[in-house]
Amino acid sequence: MAKKPTLSSVAEEAGVSVPTVSQVMRDTGRISEKTRQKVLSAAKRLRYVPNHAAATMRSGENREIGFILNKLANPFNSEVASSAVDFLEAEGFMVSILDAQGSLQRQDHHLEACIRFGRGGLIWVPALETSEDSVELLKAHSVPAVTFMRKVSRSLDHVGILNTEALTDATQHLMDLGHKHIAYFGGTEQSSVREERITGYLNALKQMDGVQPIIWPCDENKRAGFDAITALRKQHPEVTGIVCNGDVVALGACFGLIQTGLKPGHDFSVVGFDDIEDADVTTPGLTTMAINPRKLGARLAEILLERIRTPELPVRHFEYAATLKVRGTSGEAPKN
């Protein structure tokens, strides 16, 4: 097996000292451009890659970040994570994406791994029923962290959404179009996020006397939405519009409607939540409550870096409003 390249072998190849190579790799010191290029060329020829773990031990600074989320397969989550990674990598950090898939056991394993491998910070979407013990674990090891979507502690920075207001607006949008029978569609978890959204839906329906709310659960994926919309319409043929727990299940519902010969936005209206990329490029375009997942990802990364660089900052909680983006899947209630 070939001997792996080291600082010493790069120094020998470049004809300079080991401290000079170290300074070039860390971009420190007063090194001439000629010498810097000579060292970088030697490192490239030898395929040398700096040992980040060793550098961390010397400097005490860890430039690796953990990101624990739930269900990476959901495009909303992947768009948030992708944007956070872009932001952090531009700042010289590496990000490890960990998917707890809604499991407390997996989440505990990931949290312990972040501590065991010395992650310098954490962006975290807590699983349902996360206990204060998980928060205390992070605090005991001084891991800077920001939570997203689900708030589990007032002692951690947090980024959330004004869910209740958003679903009130979404439901009101369909009511303004003449829909009298509107269902809340999607999701199965009794999470604070879904409960807040259902509250917004119920608040809007209070304006219409005698109209009974319909909350129709289904898993958060396109296949589930595709199947569930048929079951909903069969049991509640009076329903002419739905407000959805997320864009993915809303898109599934639209595909289900098209499969049965109905046109979303003409025969039946659908409003999503998130504004993922697919919402804009599908046909017809999905009306949705837009929260710009890429912007949220960058904001999460920015808040975490501020916490890492200025630990004495007061704890901050941010709640962002969603904006109704009208596209083709919402229209006037059918007359018949």
Please describe what this structure looks like.
The protein has 336 residues and is of the alpha/beta class. The chain has 2 domains: 127 residues, Response regulator (Rossmann fold); 130 residues, Response regulator (Rossmann fold). The chain has 13 helices and 12 strands. The strands form 2 sheets. It has a 6-stranded parallel beta sheet with strand order 2-1-3-4-5-11, sandwiched between helices. It has a 6-stranded mixed beta sheet with strand order 7-6-8-9-10-12, sandwiched between helices. Strand 8, helix 11 and strand 9 form a beta-alpha-beta unit. Helix 5 packs across helix 13. The radius of gyration is 25 Å and the shape is elongated. The relative contact order is 0.12.
What key phrases describe this protein's structure?
elongated; alpha/beta; 12 strands; 46% helix; Rossmann fold; six-stranded mixed beta sheet; single chain; 2 domains; six-stranded parallel beta sheet; 336 residues
In short:
With 336 residues, the protein is of the alpha/beta class. It is 46% helix and 16% strand. It folds into 2 domains: 127 residues, Response regulator (Rossmann fold), CATH 3.40.50; 130 residues, 3-Layer(aba) Sandwich (Rossmann fold), CATH 3.40.50.
**Strand residue content:** 15-25%
**What is the CATH topology classification name of the largest domain?**
Rossmann fold
**Number of individual domains:** 2
Architecture of the largest domain, according to CATH?
A: 3-Layer(aba) Sandwich
Helix amount, in percent?
A: 40-55%
